[in-house]
């Protein structure tokens, strides 16, 4: 109705009036991204396909252009003005400002953050690493510089240059640690960075990225 010539675009004023009158308001973060896209449009119009992509949370070329245009569309302290947040949401905001340089990225991260489904992958990996370390610590009776123990390299989990044919070792070495310091540092990073990222991007993306890093290592 708003696009009788079927061009795929409508004026931003028309869209704004539609947004204000509709009973189901848009996600504020997605609305900000759409505004950034409009400002990057030569005609200053809203594109239907870009709207669909944002509503369906597709990280498409439209999203990338919104990010590129969004640096001058939003103040840098946008999320810092959010009030009434609980402890956990404040933690999510803290992570966003620690790891993301652009306010648009921070908004996307903050508003896309979900607790369901839970971040089971990073939590399971961290828990397994702790259990394996405790088992080997008790078995070797050594909690620091375990690699110096003669029995350490006999573990079926360790990567060993002489056993490259045992393909599982390229992944299972991720569960072995030199000592408490390395385990603690890895567990802290996985829980403070990996878990929040998994809550945004989901288990498939994060598990693929994490395991790709293990293989590259």
UniProtKB/TrEMBL annotation:
Catalysed reaction, written as an equation: Cleaves type-1 transmembrane domains using a catalytic dyad composed of serine and histidine that are contributed by different transmembrane domains
Peptidase S54 rhomboid domain span: 166-217
Topology with respect to the bilayer: Multi-pass membrane protein
Name of the protein in its database record: rhomboid protease
Localization per Swiss-Prot or TrEMBL: Membrane
Enzyme class: hydrolase
Chain segments annotated as transmembrane: none
Family label: Belongs to the peptidase S54 family.
Known EC number: 3.4.21.105
Organism: Anseranas semipalmata (Magpie goose)
Record keywords: Membrane, Transmembrane, Transmembrane helix
GO cellular component, one term: membrane
Gene: Rhbdl1
GO molecular function terms attached to this record: serine-type endopeptidase activity
PANTHER family, sorted: RHOMBOID-RELATED PROTEIN, RHOMBOID-RELATED PROTEIN 1
């Amino acid at each position: 109705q708003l696009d009788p010539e079927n061009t795929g675009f409508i004026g931003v004023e028309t869209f704004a009036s539609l947004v204000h009158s509709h009973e189901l308001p848009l996600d504020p973060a997605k609305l900000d991204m759409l505004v950034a896209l409009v400002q990057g449009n030569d005609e200053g119009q809203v594109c239907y396909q870009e709207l669909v992509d944002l509503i369906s949370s597709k990280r498409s070329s439209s999203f990338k252009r919104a990010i590129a245009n969004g640096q001058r569309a939003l103040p840098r302290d946008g999320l810092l003005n959010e009030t009434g947040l609980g402890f956990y949401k404040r933690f999510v905001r803290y992570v966003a400002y620690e790891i993301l340089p652009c306010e648009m990225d921070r908004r996307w991260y903050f508003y896309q953050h979900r607790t369901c489904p839970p971040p089971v992958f990073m939590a399971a990996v961290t828990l397994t690493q702790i259990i394996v370390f405790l088992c080997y610590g008790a078995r070797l009776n050594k909690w620091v510089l375990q690699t110096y123990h003669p029995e350490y390299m006999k573990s079926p989990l360790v990567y060993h240059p002489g056993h490259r044919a045992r393909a599982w070792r390229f992944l299972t070495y991720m569960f072995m640690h030199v000592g408490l310091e390395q385990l603690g540092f890895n567990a802290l990073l996985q829980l403070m960075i990996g878990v929040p990222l998994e809550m945004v991007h989901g288990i498939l993306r994060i598990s693929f990225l994490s395991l790709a890093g293990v293989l590259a290592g």
